[in-house]
Design brief:
With 404 residues, this protein is of the alpha/beta class. The protein is built from 19 helices and seven strands. The longest helix has 38 residues, at 191-228.
Length: 404
């Protein structure tokens, strides 16, 4: 190749596409008019990522790189490319109709990712690594809950077919009482009784260990979430698990979500058009991140149970003739709007550290405070410890203590 030809290559604008896998990434390069230039495969190692970036830059100025799987198999390449100043765009895998039409292979998928970056069909920035620790703790805590549930179900199944003496003694117990009783067992009797009791004891101890593990992980998760976004965690009805899920869905760089409507759509809480002919209506979105949708649902249930404003809203909607399902849908949309503000803006959290010392200095019990405000003592205790947030109650509580 002549020096003039090499200069032309360096001066041209190119777009990259990456199809990522466990051990390899397939990289494709296209020109700014969509022409295929080259593709190659590289290992998912530091040296492989460096070689892949060198391969891209050798064909011209890299405008953007579309990567499939930026938060999974392509996370390593994404991290390396962004550290070298390249614009990385998150690309969804091609839909089934397109795959049936064009076929499926690593080069095909890599070129499709590059075309998605060129055409503007893919525009989302990948999530950064600031919520990586929250994601790891959240996933591990949820897996502990699933394993605990499986062990509890297995205990019930063993008791169904257990000998009558065992079933009558332990089958009537429920919850923690059953687990504690089975964990203290000393298997004895004939071979059948010994085997069944040994199995039940093992399962009960597994339940206790997983419960303790989940509590430890939840405390660590709560600390991480509170440090990352104290305003989100302090919002009424948002616990460690729901806050973590919303942060994972949004990513550590929430500026990638341009509007609260886009966040609602991401959580599957935005209505979508379902009109045809003379019919003009909307239906509930069934897409988006369903785990984030579940988090919004749990927040809605908590607020319907204990939040005064939400209960008043539900009462008004019931009087208007709406069903409970419709009301929850409306609440999820409103909660999505509030969560978007918590994720994208810095909220000032009113201090509550002075409440308990002030109460104790005046020898006032939790029961007295609860009776005055018409709430449970647990509500006041959680407010004092920062486990739940109610700014109106906190202000009224502080004024009452100062005047007492």
């Amino acid at each position: 190749m002549t020096s003039e030809g090499a200069a032309d290559i360096v001066d041209q604008d190119v777009f990259g596409g990456v199809d990522s896998h466990t051990d390899t990434v397939h990289v494709a390069v296209i020109s700014d008019n969509g022409g295929h230039l080259a593709d190659a495969e590289f290992a998912t190692t530091t040296a492989g990522y460096a070689a892949a970036l060198a391969f891209l830059t050798a064909h011209g100025r890299v405008i953007a790189v579309g990567v499939e799987g930026t938060s999974s198999y392509g996370a390593g390449f994404t991290r390396t490319a962004r550290s070298h100043g390249h614009q990385v765009i998150e690309v969804n895998r091609p839909d089934k109709a397109e795959r049936r039409r064009t076929g499926k292979s690593d080069p095909i998928d890599a070129y499709a990712a590059a075309r998605a970056a060129l055409s503007g069909r893919a525009t989302s920035s990948p999530k950064d690594d600031t919520v990586g620790g929250i994601r790891a703790l959240h996933n591990t805590a949820r897996s502990a809950v699933k394993a605990r549930t499986a062990a509890l179900n297995q205990i019930g199944q063993v008791l169904v077919t257990a000998p009558e003496a065992i079933r009558s003694k332990y089958g009537q117990l429920k919850g923690t009482d059953r687990t504690e009783a089975l964990a203290r067992l000393r298997p004895a009797g004939d071979a059948l009784h010994t085997a069944v009791l040994t199995a039940l004891k093992s399962l009960a101890r597994r339940v206790k260990e997983l419960t303790a593990e989940h509590e430890t992980l939840t405390r660590a998760l709560d600390a991480e979430v509170t440090t990352h976004n104290p305003g989100l965690r302090a919002t009424y009805g948002v616990g460690p698990d729901t806050a973590a899920q919303l942060l994972i869905t949004a990513g550590g760089n929430p500026e990638r979500m341009r509007t609260e409507a886009s966040f609602a759509a991401l959580c599957g809480a935005a209505p979508v058009p379902a009109s045809s002919g003379r019919t003009n209506r909307h239906r509930l979105s069934r897409g988006g991140d369903r785990t984030a949708n579940s988090a919004l649902y749990r927040i809605a249930l908590v607020r319907m149970s204990g939040d005064v404003r939400t209960r008043a809203y539900v009462t008004r909607q019931v009087a208007a003739g709406r069903t409970k399902k419709e009301i929850i849908r409306m609440l999820k949309r409103a909660i999505a709007r509030e969560m978007f503000r918590c994720l994208t803006t810095t909220l000032n959290i009113p201090g509550i550290a002075d409440l308990r010392p002030l109460r104790q200095a005046k020898n006032i019990t939790l029961t007295t405070v609860a009776q005055h405000f018409g709430v449970w003592p647990t509500t006041i205790s959680r407010l004092e410890r920062g486990l739940s947030r109610d700014d109106d109650l906190a202000h009224a509580y502080r004024d009452w203590l100062r005047a007492a």
